[in-house]
């Protein structure tokens, strides 16, 4: 059951704000949050569309009759039943390309979100809890990284080792090492407000070390802001990856991504516009869905809004 | 205020030094600048490779290299280039081109964001508010290069309708001349219009969402109630009392977005084939010209720091509760 650990963490919060759960009726905040989330129509619709896109990208590839890497004899064909998204001037089926590209773009965004969330949360929690010079040092490092345009640094680093089967993983690693800073700031500010709370002091008196306090007591209580910040990260990672690939520094051919597809199509905007519409539509749809899901989560997880 | 300004400017010096060192180390360790040369067919003779390595100071230890680069900066020497580019001169020239786009894009985005947040906050939950909110999210979700390509397509049909070239879809206007002042204005608009719109949309979407919330908060506050009770007109209440304080939190978001918009200007310039900072960086990376990339990042870091400083000063001007004197 994935809900067991967070539930216990949340009951910490319930105790801390003085609402001790009744003995016979266990307080299940995650169920309330889920109910709240599912009451936002835009968020639920977005979630459904995103799941469909994920299925389309990951399950569609093997099922579809054409491969993104094998050309057909239909050159520059507009969308039809045979090629729903059309083909390019070399006869590659665009729907197969979009499936593969979406797969790559989603894998990169997911990897970036997971890694950056891990690094950023731990970094921010340590800075906020330890405080003093360690806090100053850790947060100045965050400031330093934020001075530079992510896209420029990522372009240089990703370019250094070209292509290959795992080329996309390198792009993801580069983006993750540059984008965790936002998470660190968010988590630090939450931890700063929690570190003097009773449950932390109680844990400290009971003999818990800083590592245990950070991982067992502080981080579980910052899950709300972390999830919201992570969704923002997914959306911005999609846009960064596509921009990198568009510039030619991200995913390299023969592999493909949504940004690379648009890069390859830009010479044919007026003659074969479909090549340029479909990949763009998928980028916008993914980013839009993630944004609306994030809005729903923010509203569902924000205790301020629950009071209303 | 002056003391604060001096202190902020002084803090920038160590920040920039540490940042430049960090940058230098990361870039030096991330790969071999001669890798492209070494894999050339036919391979260049070893003497050429050696001469190139000496030229790029690769025979020196890392710390010496950093020192040579740093001390060179003070006399305007940005380091050696693989393709014999005068990096300093090139940076100055390109910066002039790019700053136009950057400044105009940021101003346009900010003005549109303010207008959108005023409409959204005053007409909260109306259809206009819902439409603006949706457009804002759509703008945030739209990749800059896709929007820019879309605008290019649109411009081509506009030009066809008009029968003459009003909007330029490529080039930064360098080398183009106009005889009359009127033609010069038209040329400037034609060159700048599309890239500025493309660059500003995403930022505008982001900023208007924060602006709307900040203005709603401000309009619900006590001092706005007082202003209303005193019988001030609604326009005055919103613009002079509500908007003024809500611009301050908006500025924080604007300042934080400096690095992002600078990165997006690289993409925008690439789509419109400008010979600005974006092109310098992209070709620098393609050629593995490390000192070009280093110089570029240095200038970018400085721009963002100055940008943050301006935002902080405006913050104090706008919000009378904030004073920097101590």
Automatic annotation (TrEMBL), chain A:
PROSITE patterns: ABC_TM1. InterPro entries: BP-dependent_transpt_permease, MetI-like, MetI-like_sf, OppC_N. It comes from the Bacteria. One of its GO terms (cellular component) is plasma membrane. It is found in: Cell inner membrane; Cell membrane. The chain crosses the membrane at residues 38-59, 108-130, 137-156, 168-187, 218-239, 274-297. The keyword Membrane applies. It is a multi-pass membrane protein. Pfam families: BPD_transp_1, OppC_N. GO terms for biological process: peptide transport; protein transport; transmembrane transport. The keyword NADP does not apply. Gene3D superfamilies: MetI-like. Keywords: Cell inner membrane, Cell membrane, Membrane, Peptide transport, Protein transport, Transmembrane, Transmembrane helix, Transport. Residues 102-294 form the ABC transmembrane type-1 domain. PANTHER family: OLIGOPEPTIDE TRANSPORT SYSTEM PERMEASE PROTEIN APPC, OLIGOPEPTIDE TRANSPORT SYSTEM PERMEASE PROTEIN OPPC. Belongs to the binding-protein-dependent transport system permease family. OppBC subfamily. This is Oligopeptide transport system permease protein OppC.
TrEMBL record, chain B:
One of its GO terms (cellular component) is plasma membrane. The chain crosses the membrane at residues 9-30, 66-89, 101-125, 131-149, 290-318. Residues 95-315 form the ABC transmembrane type-1 domain. The keyword Transmembrane helix applies. Keywords: Cell membrane, Membrane, Transmembrane, Transmembrane helix, Transport. It is found in: Cell membrane. GO terms for biological process: transmembrane transport. It is a multi-pass membrane protein. CDD domains: TM_PBP2 (cd06261). It comes from the Bacteria. The keyword Membrane applies. Pfam families: BPD_transp_1, BPD_transp_1_N. This is Binding-protein-dependent transport systems inner membrane component. It comes from Chelativorans sp. (strain BNC1).
């Amino acid at each position: 059951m994935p809900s067991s650990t967070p539930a216990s963490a949340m009951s910490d919060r319930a105790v801390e704000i003085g609402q001790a759960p009744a003995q016979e009726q266990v307080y299940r905040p995650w169920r309330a949050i889920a109910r709240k989330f599912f009451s936002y129509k835009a968020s639920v619709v977005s979630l459904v569309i995103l799941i469909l896109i994920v299925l389309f990208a990951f399950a569609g590839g093997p099922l579809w009759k054409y491969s993104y890497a094998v050309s057909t004899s239909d050159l520059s064909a507009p969308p039809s039943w045979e090629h729903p998204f059309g083909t390019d001037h070399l006869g590659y089926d665009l729907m197969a390309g979009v499936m593969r590209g979406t797969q790559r773009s989603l894998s990169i965004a997911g990897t970036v979100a997971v890694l950056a969330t891990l690094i950023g949360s731990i970094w921010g929690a340590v800075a906020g809890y330890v405080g003093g010079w360690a806090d100053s040092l850790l947060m100045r490092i965050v400031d330093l990284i934020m001075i530079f345009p992510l896209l420029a640094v990522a372009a240089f680093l990703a370019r250094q080792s070209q292509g290959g089967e795992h080329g996309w993983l390198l792009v993801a690693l580069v983006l993750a090492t540059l984008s965790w800073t936002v998470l660190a700031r968010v988590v630090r500010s939450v931890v700063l407000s929690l570190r003097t709370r009773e449950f932390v002091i109680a844990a400290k008196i009971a003999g818990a070390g800083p590592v245990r306090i950070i991982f067992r007591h502080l981080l579980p209580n910052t899950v709300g802001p972390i999830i919201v910040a992570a969704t923002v990260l997914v959306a911005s990672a999609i846009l960064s990856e596509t921009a990198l690939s568009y510039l030619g520094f991200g995913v390299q051919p023969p592999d493909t991504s949504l940004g690379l597809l648009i890069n390859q199509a830009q010479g044919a905007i007026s003659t074969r516009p479909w090549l340029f519409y479909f990949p763009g539509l998928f980028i916008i749809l993914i980013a839009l869905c993630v944004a609306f899901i994030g809005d729903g989560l923010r509203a569902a997880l924000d205790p301020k809004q629950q009071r209303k | 205020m002056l003391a604060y300004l001096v202190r902020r400017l002084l803090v920038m010096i160590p920040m920039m030094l540490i940042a430049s060192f960090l940058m230098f180390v990361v870039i030096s360790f991330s790969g071999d600048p001669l890798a492209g040369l070494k894999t050339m067919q036919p391979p260049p003779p070893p003497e050429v490779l050696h001469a190139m390595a000496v030229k790029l100071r690769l025979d020196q230890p890392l710390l010496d290299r950093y020192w040579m680069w740093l001390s060179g900066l003070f006399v305007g020497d940005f380091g050696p280039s693989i393709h014999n580019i005068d990096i300093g001169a090139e940076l100055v020239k390109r910066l002039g081109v790019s700053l136009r786009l950057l400044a105009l894009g940021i101003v346009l985005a900010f003005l549109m964001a303010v207008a959108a947040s005023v409409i959204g906050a005053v007409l909260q939950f109306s259809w206009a508010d819902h439409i603006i909110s949706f457009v804002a999210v759509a703008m945030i979700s739209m990749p800059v290069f896709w929007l820019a390509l879309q605008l290019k397509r649109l411009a081509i049909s506009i030009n066809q309708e008009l029968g003459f070239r009003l909007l330029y879809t490529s080039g930064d206007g360098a080398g183009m001349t106009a005889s009359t002042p009127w033609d010069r204005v038209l040329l400037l608009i034609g060159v700048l219009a599309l890239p500025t719109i493309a660059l500003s949309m995403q930022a505008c979407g982001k900023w208007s969402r924060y602006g709307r919330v900040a203005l709603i908060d401000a309009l619900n506050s006590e001092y706005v109630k007082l202003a209303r009770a005193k019988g001030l007109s609604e326009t005055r209440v919103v613009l002079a009392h509500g908007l003024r304080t809500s611009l301050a939190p908006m500025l924080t978001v604007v300042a934080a977005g400096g690095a992002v918009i600078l990165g997006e200007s690289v993409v925008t310039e690439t789509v419109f084939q400008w010979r600005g900072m974006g092109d310098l960086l992209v070709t620098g990376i393609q050629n593995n010209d490390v000192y070009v990339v280093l110089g570029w990042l240095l200038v970018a870091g400085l721009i963002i720091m100055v940008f943050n400083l301006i935002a902080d000063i405006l913050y104090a001007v706008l919000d009378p509760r904030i004073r920097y004197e101590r």
